[in-house]
Automatic annotation (TrEMBL):
Keywords: ATP-binding, Kinase, Membrane, Nucleotide-binding, Phosphoprotein, Transferase, Transmembrane, Transmembrane helix, Two-component regulatory system. The keyword Transit peptide does not apply. This is histidine kinase. It comes from the Bacteria. Residues 20-226 form the Histidine kinase domain. It comes from Peribacillus butanolivorans. The lineage of its organism: Bacteria, Bacillati, Bacillota, Bacilli, Bacillales.
Length: 241
């Protein structure tokens, strides 16, 4: 039956996740073991501090993975409230502005509405937007632009996060959101999985379009409650350098 299929899907997902966690934790453990063995062999090794530093970094990496998973495994109910998403987006952009500026990334926010009310869990939604904006910044090693655009279509609000970064080829695009799928040296490949989950739990959807060396668009579509328009042209720009 459909329900059984659903359960099987879930079990498969759990297995995939468990295998991923084990794999992710084994790498730092192996390197910690190696460096600890060095230190045991020669307690006056001149690279002692460097090795201890590496071990500390690896401990932090394991810790981060475990934290993320605790977060995921807690079936916390969404705390839904009616919120204006305009200041939520502005807040996320101001949180990332400093980091963006350092990396020669300019952030823009094009919003033609003063108030767009949706039912959402504000903190979770912020987490999603942060993930997308930070991914965008990370996709532009030589700087560029991130534009956040809100549009209203058929009782839904579309929030697009558009970057001018490296983009993704189709086989990579297909894999995003898989647990631990990352192309970054220090990425953990959990951000999108968590973000997609959060949007789904808001009865929303995420569409992604990407072109290599052109950039990527993450389009979040959420059910909307009410809109209030600006009287002027309402263009907001954040983080112009
Ligand atoms: P992480 O950022 O830790 O790698 P994510 O789940 O956030 O994990 O992203 C998974 C992968 O998706 C990234 O490693 C990258 O390859 C790809 N990706 C995500 N966002 C973008 C983007 N804006 N531009 C290009 N690639 C992206
Ligand atoms: Mg990420």
């Amino acid at each position: 039956t459909e329900e059984m299929l659903h359960r099987q899907d879930k079990l498969a997902a759990v297995g995939q996740l468990a295998a991923g966690v084990a794999h992710e934790i084994r790498n730092p453990l192996t390197s910690m073991k190696g460096y600890t063995e060095y230190l045991q062999l020669d307690e006056k090794d001149e690279n002692r501090l460097e090795y201890l530093g590496i071990i500390m970094d690896e401990i932090n990496r394991v810790n981060e993975i475990v934290e993320e998973f605790l977060e995921l495994s807690k079936p916390q109910p969404l705390i839904l409230e009616t919120k204006n998403i305009v200041p939520i987006i502005q807040n996320v952009l101001s949180l990332t502005e400093f980091d963006a500026r350092k990396k020669n990334v300019i952030l823009f926010f094009d919003c033609y509405h003063e108030e767009i009310l949706i039912r959402c869990d504000e903190n979770r939604l912020k987490q999603v937007l942060l993930n997308f904006v930070i991914n965008g910044i990370e996709a532009m090693p030589d700087g560029g632009e991130i534009k956040v655009v809100t549009e209203l279509k058929e009782e839904k609000v579309h929030i697009s996060i558009i970057d001018t970064g490296v983009g993704m080829p189709p086989d990579q695009l297909r894999r995003i959101g898989e647990p631990f799928f990352t192309t970054k040296k220090s990425g953990n490949g959990l951000g999108l999985m968590i973000s997609f989950k959060i949007i789904e739990s808001h009865l929303g959807r995420v569409f992604v379009e990407s072109e290599v060396n052109k950039g990527t668009v993450f389009n979040i579509v959420l059910p909307m409650e009410i809109v209030k328009d600006f009287s002027n042209d309402g263009i907001e720009k954040v983080g112009l350098v």
